[in-house]
Design goal:
The chain is mainly α and about 80 residues long. It has a single domain, classed as ACP-like (Non-ribosomal Peptide Synthetase Peptidyl Carrier Protein, Chain A), CATH 1.10.1200. It contains 4 helices and no strands. α1 crosses α2.
């Protein structure tokens, strides 16, 4: 699985949590780019992503993320571990 495929899988999760059905994610998408992506929404996104992929993120892993592409790469690493 590559980052493009992961981002495609993340698309409906982000659209649902942020209540933005027309949201289109790219690897470069960041929280300030998206209306409503605040700290509470971020927690909800992380929880939904963990549930979807059946994995857990460490706080330190999340602090190093700069954009959706970084999240996709982290998911790939965790799924491969």
């Amino acid at each position: 699985m590559n980052s493009t495929e992961i981002i495609a899988e993340l698309q409906p999760i982000f659209a649902d949590i942020l209540d933005l059905p027309d949201l289109r994610l790219t690897a470069e998408t960041t929280a300030p780019d998206v209306e409503g992506w605040d700290s509470l929404a971020h927690i909800n996104l992380v929880g939904a992503i963990e549930k979807h992929y059946k994995l857990k993120f460490a706080l330190g892993e999340l602090q190093d993320l700069n954009n959706v592409g970084d999240m996709a790469n982290l998911i790939i690493r965790k799924l491969g571990a």
